[in-house]
Amino acid sequence: MTNANLIYQIDEAIGAHGMWKMRLRAAMRTGKSDISAHEAGCDGNCKFGQWLNSTALSAEAKADVPYKVVKRVHADFHRSAGHVMSSALGGRQREAEERLEGEFIPASEKLVRALMKWKSELQKGIRRAA
């Protein structure tokens, strides 16, 4: 997979994971969701998580530090999304709000920072090769 393809996947992941806050807020408001708390908490269910674990990425890419960091913080992101979703679907809106603000939002910001760093390193590699 080329660096350009990796950058595309990272951009897609940033957008898709940005939508989670709205999804969680909707669950908090309504007490309902199209996915369970277990599904929200599983980092292998989303398109990006499936890609991270796929053979589309080379062993070399998976051995790099940025991949390892993103994989870890992506799992943390989904774990916290699952916690918020569990509270929201369980009718514990106050707890869900506290988890959203205290756990999910920091995990989301950390994921975006890790993705942006990975993207930046890939872009540097493209410029060096040119």
UniProtKB/TrEMBL annotation:
Occurrences of domain Chemoreceptor zinc-binding (ranges): 17-84
Q: Which domain of life is it from?
A: Bacteria
Pfam families, sorted: CZB (PF13682)
Q: What is this protein called?
A: CZB domain-containing protein
Species: Novosphingobium piscinae
> What broad taxonomic lineage does this protein's source fall under?
Bacteria, Pseudomonadati, Pseudomonadota, Alphaproteobacteria, Sphingomonadales
